[in-house]
């Protein structure tokens, strides 16, 4: 029996500040229905899919900031989406800004949730690698305030048995770190889902502008190949409140090849039949962890670590 999973990567175009929550949710539901029409079994939405990417702005008013967060997902604010998905029998990955509120404490995370085709929550993830800065940089054309608006995720990189395979999640900047993929793959991940908001310009490093698209793909293609995983990466694209974000929503095979990619910078579905058994040749042969990650291998690596002086070279 083959394990083919039809996945719809649902890229979001820009979400303007004055778009209501209902309007944004309707856009997601429109893509959900199209994905179901095309017999997708899982739809993957982006990072903070319910709102504009507010870390691009300096916000001092706490009530204004809180309005960008959700406490319970699936919950009242997203009920229409998850209800429709359950009726259509399609699983959902959704990124959102999470507010955990106790009586005396607020905690904020950049989170994602995975819900199965029966409408049950499979698992949650909180972003670990938060880019940017915590202080206001008024001279920049836009801010990158994830270090101010979110805490480092405290759930690790778990994996779950779901959709006929082993699934893990990460969020945006996590995709640039090799340990993200390796820890997920050590947990058995065959499919890694992620959303991103990636500007095509980092104010502090204009010299990297020409490499933004290339490096976006490079890290995920390497991560997929070196860990024998499918990677489904879904962007928020286009010009959002003056910030231009890349598209390039991508489905990447365990071979490291990009097998499907968005062509626009608006709302767009990218659909592919992902064969979860295509992971086997990589996990069992080239990247067989058991055969190549023994204590002996790691002794050989760690004992020889460090910068050598000329005398120490034999
Ligand atoms: N949302 C992100 O994590 N964005 C970063 C940008 C700021 C570099 C990214 O890694 O794409």
Give structural attributes.
Nitrilase/N-carbamoyl-D-aminoacid amidohydrolase; globular; alpha/beta; single chain; binds 3-methyl-2-ureido-butyric acid; 14 strands; 314 residues; 6-stranded mixed beta sheet
Largest sheet: 6 strands, mixed
Question: How much strand content do the residues show?
Answer: 25-35%
Number of strands: 14
CATH topology: Nitrilase/N-carbamoyl-D-aminoacid amidohydrolase
What is the general shape? globular
Q: Order of strands across the widest beta sheet?
A: 5-4-3-2-1-14
Cofactors, ions, other ligands: 3-methyl-2-ureido-butyric acid
Helix content: 25-40%
Q: Could you name the CATH homologous superfamily?
A: Carbon-nitrogen hydrolase
Contiguous helical run count: 9
Low-confidence stretches: none
The radius of gyration computed from the alpha-carbon positions, rounded to a whole number of angstroms, is 20 Å
Describe this structure in words.
The chain is 26% helix and 26% strand. The strands form three sheets. The protein has a six-stranded mixed β-sheet. A six-stranded mixed β-sheet has the order 6-7-8-9-12-13, covered by helices on one side. The chain is α/β, with parallel strands linked by helices and 314 residues long. A hairpin with a 4-residue loop joins β3 and β4. α1 runs parallel beside α3 and α5 packs parallel to α6. The longest helix is centred in the first third of the chain and has 17 residues. The chain binds 3-methyl-2-ureido-butyric acid. The site of 3-methyl-2-ureido-butyric acid has 11 residues, from loops.
């Amino acid at each position: 029996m083959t394990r083919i999973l039809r996945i719809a990567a649902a890229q979001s175009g820009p979400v303007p500040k004055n778009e209501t929550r209902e309007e944004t949710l309707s856009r997601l539901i429109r893509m959900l229905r199209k994905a179901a029409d095309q017999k997708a079994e899982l739809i993957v939405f982006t990072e903070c899919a319910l709102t504009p990417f507010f870390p691009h702005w300096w916000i001092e008013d706490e009530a204004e900031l809180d309005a960008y967060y959700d406490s319970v997902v699936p919950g009242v604010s997203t009920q229409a989406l998850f209800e429709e998905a359950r009726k259509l029998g399609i699983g959902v990955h959704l990124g959102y800004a999470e507010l955990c509120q106790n009586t005396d404490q607020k905690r904020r995370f950049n989170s994602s949730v995975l819900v199965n085709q029966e409408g049950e929550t499979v698992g949650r993830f909180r972003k670990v690698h938060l880019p940017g800065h915590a202080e206001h940089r008024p001279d920049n054309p836009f801010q990158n305030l994830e270090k101010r608006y979110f805490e480092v995720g405290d759930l690790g990189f778990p994996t779950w048995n779901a959709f006929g395979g082993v699934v893990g999640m990460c969020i945006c900047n996590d995709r640039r770190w090799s340990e993200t993929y390796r820890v997920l793959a050590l947990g058995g991940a065959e499919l890694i889902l992620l959303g991103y908001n990636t500007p095509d310009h980092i104010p502090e490093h204009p010299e990297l502008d020409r490499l933004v698209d290339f490096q976006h793909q490079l890290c995920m293609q390497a991560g997929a190949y070196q860990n024998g995983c499918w990677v489904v990466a879904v962007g928020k694209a286009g010009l959002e409140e003056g910030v231009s974000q890349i598209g390039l929503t991508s489905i990447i095979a365990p071979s490291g090849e990009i097998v499907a990619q968005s062509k626009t910078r608006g709302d767009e579905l990218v659909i592919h039949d992902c064969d979860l058994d295509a992971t086997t040749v990589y996990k069992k042969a080239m990247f067989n962890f058991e055969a190549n990650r023994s204590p002996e291998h790691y002794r050989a690596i760690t004992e020889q670590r460090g910068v050598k002086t000329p005398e120490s070279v034999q």
